Amino acid sequence: MPEPKQSTPERTRRRRATTVRQRALLDVLGRSDRFRSAQQLHAELRVTETVGIGLTSVYRILHRFAEQQVVQTQRAEDGESLYRLRTSDGHHHYLVCRICGRAEQFTLDPVERYTDHIARQHEYADVTHHLDLYGTCPDCLAGVDGQRGRQE
């Protein structure tokens, strides 16, 4: 029977560093309810945290957080993944600002019912859907209009 692996100091140090990095990323995620890209989160980590963390590690941690349902993920119109801390359970849709990432959560009961109907009609199981709306929020619209007024 093989002996159990002993925890080496190097492995312990790496595990602790990962935990520190995860906590730092959670802190940054907790500062805003907006969806942000891994690059945006990485840039904020570099400015505000004392923990050194590479972009690859940010992606890896975000992937793990998504699997554990710690974060909500969102696809931007260009396909880029965006993240924010999960604030509620259940299925929701979002109205997302293209400029700042602000997201308004909403439910759409007719779509949920129709999805169930289509699944039953075609005898499918475990059917999911993804519906999000994109636009410009009032704050960004005011900023855009304000800049236009100065340029004209």
From TrEMBL:
<dbReference type="GO" id="GO:0045892">
    <property type="term" value="P:negative regulation of DNA-templated transcription"/>
</dbReference>
<keyword id="KW-0408">Iron</keyword>
<feature type="binding site">
    <location>
        <position position="112"/>
    </location>
    <ligand>
        <name>Fe cation</name>
    </ligand>
</feature>
<dbReference type="GO" id="GO:1900376">
    <property type="term" value="P:regulation of secondary metabolite biosynthetic process"/>
</dbReference>
<keyword id="KW-0238">DNA-binding</keyword>
<keyword id="KW-0678">Repressor</keyword>
<dbReference type="GO" id="GO:0003700">
    <property type="term" value="F:DNA-binding transcription factor activity"/>
</dbReference>
<protein>
    <submittedName>
        <fullName>Fe2+/Zn2+ uptake regulation protein</fullName>
    </submittedName>
</protein>
<dbReference type="InterPro" id="IPR036388">
    <property type="entry name" value="WH-like_DNA-bd_sf"/>
</dbReference>
<dbReference type="GO" id="GO:0005829">
    <property type="term" value="C:cytosol"/>
</dbReference>
<keyword id="KW-0805">Transcription regulation</keyword>
<feature type="binding site">
    <location>
        <position position="129"/>
    </location>
    <ligand>
        <name>Fe cation</name>
    </ligand>
</feature>
<comment type="subunit">
    <text>Homodimer.</text>
</comment>
<feature type="binding site">
    <location>
        <position position="137"/>
    </location>
    <ligand>
        <name>Zn(2+)</name>
    </ligand>
</feature>
<dbReference type="Pfam" id="PF01475">
    <property type="entry name" value="FUR"/>
</dbReference>
<dbReference type="InterPro" id="IPR002481">
    <property type="entry name" value="FUR"/>
</dbReference>
<dbReference type="GO" id="GO:0000976">
    <property type="term" value="F:transcription cis-regulatory region binding"/>
</dbReference>
<keyword id="KW-0963">Cytoplasm</keyword>
<feature type="binding site">
    <location>
        <position position="140"/>
    </location>
    <ligand>
        <name>Zn(2+)</name>
    </ligand>
</feature>
<dbReference type="InterPro" id="IPR043135">
    <property type="entry name" value="Fur_C"/>
</dbReference>
<keyword id="KW-0862">Zinc</keyword>
<dbReference type="GO" id="GO:0008270">
    <property type="term" value="F:zinc ion binding"/>
</dbReference>
<keyword id="KW-0804">Transcription</keyword>
<dbReference type="InterPro" id="IPR036390">
    <property type="entry name" value="WH_DNA-bd_sf"/>
</dbReference>
<feature type="binding site">
    <location>
        <position position="97"/>
    </location>
    <ligand>
        <name>Zn(2+)</name>
    </ligand>
</feature>
<feature type="binding site">
    <location>
        <position position="100"/>
    </location>
    <ligand>
        <name>Zn(2+)</name>
    </ligand>
</feature>
<comment type="similarity">
    <text>Belongs to the Fur family.</text>
</comment>
<keyword id="KW-0479">Metal-binding</keyword>
